[in-house]
Amino acid sequence: MKAVVTGGGGFLGSHLVERLQNDGHDVVVARRADYDLTREDDAARLFQDAQPELVFHLAAEVGGIGANRANPGRYWYANLLMGAHVLEQARRARVGKLVLAGTVCAYPKFAPIPFREEDLWNGYPEETNAPYGVAKKSILVGAQAYREQYGLDAIFLLPANLYGPRDNFHETNAHVIADLIRKMAAGEDEVVLWGDGSPTREFLYVEDCVDGLVLAAERYDGPEPVNLGAGKEISIRELAELVADVVGFRGKIVWDTSMPNGQPRRSVDATRARELFGFEARTSLRDGLERTVAWYREHAGAVASAQA
Questions:
Q1: Among this protein's residues, is 77 annotated catalytic?
Q2: Active-site option among 107, 132, 163, 220
Q3: Left (φ > 0), alpha (ψ -120 to 50) or beta: where does 197 sit?
Q4: To the nearest 5 percent, what fractions of the chain are helix, strand and coil?
Q5: Mind listing the pLDDT tens digit for each residue in 137-154?
Q6: CA-to-CA distance for 270 and 131, rounded, in angstroms?
Q7: Cα separation of 236 and 251, whole Å?
Q8: pTM for this one?
Q9: Cβ of 140: how many Cβ atoms within 10 Å?
Q10: How confident is the model over 21-41, as pLDDT tens digits?
Q11: How far apart, in whole angstroms, are the C-alpha atoms of residue 132 and residue 150?
């Protein structure tokens, strides 16, 4: 099929592009340098150039707690507009299937654990990432509305926190696993981490997420959102100790309790994904961390140069 992957040059997108190409699809990689999807004319030009049958919308402006605190307006605006423009252009182009990547940040701050899709609207997201999460939830509403009015086959997936090779290791907007690896691999005597380490998270290895995206594209055609997760919850303190063990860090871990913890707990119920399209995560957290650390050590120089 002729497929478009927005954000195809990014972390998740690059892995998905490889998978689709290996499966024999003709893939157009939509990078921001070529198509700024916050602009309606650029989104229209992408669809006109690519003439896609299948679209994966992964493009997003996103980061960790610090980046979300620094850019709440931008993250709301950019993610809302990108999703709206992709939906409208997919409708106009009569795309056969549109797969939209949401975010676990969309869930209410105090949603019951594990997060179930039916609880998505039962409260407001955690404050530090609410603008991003609310923008993504708005795209779900758009997808359901476009399905009802126009018959657009748009599906919406909610992956748990992702990690793996090619993650974003930037000093100011990396997510927690990449940030831990970068800090602990630097050879310092101590690392300072935000909060008190008590919040919990669930982590999904990037290639497992790709499996979920592809399975959903092939087998799922419903309006309801679907979680993608690994079913394992771990505290940030336990995660830091695990990453330290994998990296070989023997220094001191200092918790800066003046900084925010973020959402208290985060873990998803992936039952719906298993039942609807046969998705199950296969990579254990330790195995995934070992692969990620190995990739980072091999590419640390290039990562540092890209940030300079």
A1: no
A2: 132
A3: left
A4: 45, 20, 35
A5: 999 999 999 999 999 999
A6: 24
A7: 17
A8: 0.94
A9: 23
A10: 999 999 999 999 999 999 999
A11: 26
